[in-house]
Design a protein that fits this description.
Layout (H helix, E strand, L loop, with lengths): L1 E5 L2 E4 L12 H6 L4 H7 L6 E4 L12 H10 L8 E3 L19 H9 L3 E5 L6 H14 L2 E9 L20 E8 L2 E8 L22 E5 L4 E4 L3 E7 L5 E9 L3 H13 L3 H4 L14 H17 L2 H14 L20 E4 L6 E5 L2 E6 L2 E6 L3 H7 L15 H10 L3 E4 L2
Length: 413
Amino acid sequence: MTEVLRTGQFKADEAGDSPRWEEDALGFLIAPIAKEDFLENYYERKPLINIRNEPDRYADLLTLDIVDHFINSADLREGLVDLTNHRNRIERTDYIDDDGRVSRAIVAEEYLNGATIILPQLHDSIFNLGEFCRALEEVLTCHMQTNIYLTPQVAEDGEANQGFPPHYDNHDVFVMQISGSKAWRVYGTAVETPFRGERFEVGRYEPGEVTQEFTLNPGDCLYLPRGIMHDAENAGEEPSLHITVGMITKTWADLLLESISELALSSPDFRRSLPAGYAQRDFDREQARQHFDKLIKLISKNASMDGAFDLLADNFVRGRRPNVSGVISASAVARPDDRYRRRRFVPWNVADDEGKLILIGPGGDLEFKAEEGDALDIALSGDVFTAADLNHEKPDELIRSLWAGGYLERIAS
């Protein structure tokens, strides 16, 4: 039974089954909360804390050993590793040379001195972590990115190690505790749903009173909306490792700006230059104001949401990273009895372009003839199929194109 600790906090003593992340990535993070409840009552509104008591819940995504191996084996360059220490400021030049190479020895030394190691965008290097992000993107339609935070155990003087002072993020995050423990403090809202460019500035915002305090242990999860002040510190005698999954969303402002840009292509009044001398202190703005009001009326009357919506949706799909796992290692020669299925978490759209079908997907577009539409529907349905199922004149060519593009995977017989 799930016990409500306080608003937005759930202790899962006997939470029962929750979906695997491959089946429902969002449900995996927020269970026992339902998707509809989360989107209506928590998303961009308030924190959600899930205490699950399942230490190995995220073990197939990341472990301390994986992090240790990555730091010791990867070609570490600027942008792959960062260090921060709330007590002692660390500059990038302390551990990155003029050629952009990261010193592993200095990273290790600073870590032993209490610094938090940050591994940005590790989902680009760890396959399962990348698949997990793609699974969330499928549900939420926004770019998902990861930062990995490794904070050493409590210092010898008994003072807890902490990477950052109280601050807010300019994007919503899910925090997944992998190992160790971290004590969190949540304060008030500094900026309600800030823009991506509204970064936190030390000294500009005060955290105020603590509104929630809790400790995340392995398997626990926190959802934190952007703009809410918070901080965290190691709470145990082991290193604290957690994944922060950031949600990089498009806003209504983005949609409106795109619709105005589209309208400007057909309306010369939007493309006219601002009046000569408009920066002068004594410039008379009356005529400019009249023209501005005219443009506002044109927007109200003629701006189209659908065109801008389609463009943002297609750009999102094109911007995903294609997954060609297995394509290189598998035989390039297809056999008639080979079985295929659309890969999990591959977004796609199909557009009709003057009688041609354009498959819009990760990494770029593919072009097909209009009469290939039925075969495409079968190939992209998610069901297992063979070349014969496509009823296509040259099924091997269609399969090869989709397979090389990362849309399909072969299924073992």
